[in-house]
Amino acid sequence: MLHLFNYKKKFRKEKATSTPVTTIILVVIGISLALTLALIASNIFTTNSQIEKVQVTNLGCYENQKNLTIKFEISNKGSAAATITSILVNGKPAENFFDYFNKTTQKKFKKIHLNPGETKKYTLIDSFLNSTERKIKRGVTYQIIFQTAKGNSYIEQVTT
Fold this sequence. Notes:
Layout: H1 7-13, H2 19-48, E1 54-63, E2 67-76, E3 82-89, E4 92-93, E5 100-101, E6 112-114, E7 119-127, E8 141-148, E9 153-159
């Protein structure tokens, strides 16, 4: 039988790698693959686990002879910090409807920063003493939109 290549002679002349060296090479390759997969998985998990979830509770409207107030509690139920950058009432800035924010001395809305798990009480005040006409009318349902720095909007409704 005619052989174009004589494999037996070729393999006899070359020396193979020893079993311990082969084992070490395979172990190193396995460990490097495992570390690479672990880094990729941890990167995906940490990027997707930073969730902003704002919840508004105890939303209510109260009136006395001096003013009308809308009170609410705002909570961050997510795993990332949240910042409320604006409050809109029927699509317009809350400053158009309310004279004071959270205190009778705070005339402009300031950002509300919430850490994960944190809850804050907040008050919007329409004072009757500073104006001849009420900005918030009784018996009307208002849509209140809380906008965050990440661009999310949380919509609630309150009837005065």
